[in-house]
From TrEMBL:
<dbReference type="InterPro" id="IPR013078">
    <property type="entry name" value="His_Pase_superF_clade-1"/>
</dbReference>
<dbReference type="GO" id="GO:0004619">
    <property type="term" value="F:phosphoglycerate mutase activity"/>
</dbReference>
<dbReference type="GO" id="GO:0006094">
    <property type="term" value="P:gluconeogenesis"/>
</dbReference>
<feature type="active site" description="Tele-phosphohistidine intermediate">
    <location>
        <position position="10"/>
    </location>
</feature>
<feature type="binding site">
    <location>
        <begin position="9"/>
        <end position="16"/>
    </location>
    <ligand>
        <name>substrate</name>
    </ligand>
</feature>
<dbReference type="Pfam" id="PF00300">
    <property type="entry name" value="His_Phos_1"/>
</dbReference>
<keyword id="KW-0413">Isomerase</keyword>
<comment type="similarity">
    <text>Belongs to the phosphoglycerate mutase family. BPG-dependent PGAM subfamily.</text>
</comment>
<keyword id="KW-0312">Gluconeogenesis</keyword>
<feature type="binding site">
    <location>
        <begin position="115"/>
        <end position="116"/>
    </location>
    <ligand>
        <name>substrate</name>
    </ligand>
</feature>
<feature type="binding site">
    <location>
        <position position="61"/>
    </location>
    <ligand>
        <name>substrate</name>
    </ligand>
</feature>
<feature type="binding site">
    <location>
        <begin position="159"/>
        <end position="160"/>
    </location>
    <ligand>
        <name>substrate</name>
    </ligand>
</feature>
<protein>
    <recommendedName>
        <fullName>2,3-bisphosphoglycerate-dependent phosphoglycerate mutase</fullName>
        <ecNumber>5.4.2.11</ecNumber>
    </recommendedName>
</protein>
<dbReference type="InterPro" id="IPR001345">
    <property type="entry name" value="PG/BPGM_mutase_AS"/>
</dbReference>
<feature type="site" description="Transition state stabilizer">
    <location>
        <position position="158"/>
    </location>
</feature>
<dbReference type="GO" id="GO:0006096">
    <property type="term" value="P:glycolytic process"/>
</dbReference>
<feature type="binding site">
    <location>
        <begin position="88"/>
        <end position="91"/>
    </location>
    <ligand>
        <name>substrate</name>
    </ligand>
</feature>
Amino acid sequence: MDRLLALVRHGQSDWNLKNLFTGWENVGLTEKGIAEAHAAGKMLKAAGLTFDVAFTSALTRAQHTLDIILDEMALTSIPIIRDEALNERDYGDLTGLNKDDARAKWGEEQVHIWRRSYDVSPPGGESLKDTVARTLPYYVSEIQPRVLRGERVLVAAHGNSLRSIVMVLERHSRDTIVKREIATGEPIVYRLAADSTVAETLDLTA
Ligand SMILES: O=C(O)[C@H](O)COP(=O)(O)O
């Protein structure tokens, strides 16, 4: 049984390019982001992979990335399930601010704590721990059972919602997960064992 699970962070967004805290703001992909999504689709197809169902967030940048990938793979008729449980972490009051301006105002260390600590929330927003608390139950109840039944599943989402899933699959601690960077448009592909742990991580660049 092929218990295939692929995770892809959306391609570069307008606000990634402008270096703005984005969170739940609904911004589009840049030209580069669109190209990254096409490349991800080509890469998955070239590896001989296919999918039975896809999941994405309620945000356009992830949905658009998914549509491009499915188009590249000639899989436009598979079911797509969209849910805000897969949204990016909510950046609260930081949303729309420039990350360098924020460093100048609050200091490098404080901004790093907001961006990469496990349980310190940015003002009015979600910490990674808060994001895990909504994303992980969704993964466990909606995504993982399908993979374990043998459905091949593609998830297009966001840096921190994917980190929440990767944390469990790659057995990270609170200290190591914050150092696990998830690049835009680069598929992370696992085969799971029957007990839901990772049996194999596929290297699509090989
Ligand atoms: O929401 C954002 O600004 C980014 O997509 C993720 O931000 P981060 O790199 O600060 O986690």
